[in-house]
Amino acid sequence: MRYLFLLTFLSLISCEKEKKNNLEPEKKSYQVSQGEAFGSSYTIHYEHDKDLSDTIKADLFYFDELISTYRDDSQLEKFNRSTRGIQADSVLLDLVQKCFEFNEKSKGFFDPTVAPLSALYGFNGRKIMHYPEDSAIQRVLAYTGMGKIKIKGDSLIKTNPHTQLNFNAVTGYINDYIALKFQKKGIQNYLIEIGGELYAEGVNSEGKPWNVGIDVPEDTPRREIFTTHTLQHAGLATSGNYRKFHELPDGRKVVHTINPKNGFSQASHLLSVTVIAPSAAEADAIATSLMAMGLQKAKEFSQNSSYKILLLFNQNGELKSERFGDF
Length: 327
Fold this sequence. Notes:
Layout: E1 10-12, E2 30-37, E3 40-47, H1 53-67, H2 75-81, E4 85-87, H3 90-105, H4 115-120, H5 134-141, E5 149-152, E6 155-158, H6 172-184, E7 190-194, E8 197-201, E9 210-215, E10 225-231, E11 234-240, E12 245-247, E13 253-255, E14 270-277, H7 280-293, H8 295-303, E15 308-315, E16 318-324
Antiparallel strand pairs: 1-9, 2-3, 3-7, 4-6, 5-6, 7-8, 8-11, 9-10, 11-14, 12-13, 14-15, 15-16
Helix pairs in contact: 3-7, 6-7, 7-8
């Protein structure tokens, strides 16, 4: 999950009421549940006659117990400390299975086993003074990669005792989980926002499609909206490096997105990526993958994909954009 470097780039855009013949459109009964979770916040709008806040909090707490990197007793941390693996909850196994799928769809650029690499670059709370030596990077790469883990029955297995997982780049799975719960309750209209990741179904309280905003990629207290987009029956996620980075004493910039293929933390002209996909988990994973690819490879991937994608990048000091798939 993005507990340590969760990036929130999305702002909900309110729609003005339209009046026809001086008549107000009939409003539906909508609830709003909101609060703090996973080091960030959540806001969930849904059409229902009852407030489901307690149920939603229970679901969020369940995931905290399951995949938190802050809790030593979470299943994720038990796996990370193990030498061979653990017997795992079915939801955790399903999440890992989806990670295998996203790894393949992203041509290997999505990889939740990069946790040791993130630590090497100082993104685990440990400050570093120098860029890691190539030998150190190669040593860590020896126990990263999706080939180092496997699912066997109800167990999550690792082939190298040093292999670790981190689901920071696929937190949208939680949105999808809650969406499935809503569907089982017969809820047809909702917008689930958790730490910036989104999943939407149906329409808002005005009977209109949900409309969401994508931020200008600038690290400033006051956020500016770059563009808006309607969202229905889909997930949306944004990934970027313009807020989560640190500078070494020599002035070198270290960004949190790491290329899992070569182990490098590579700064790029690519500032942010927004992806709309069938699920929030997939949007989240693909957005992170595109950031890891860098600008040119991200463009090539986007041209040949079925996703709706918005790339924001720096070109000669100016903010530029490219859209793919009718974004």
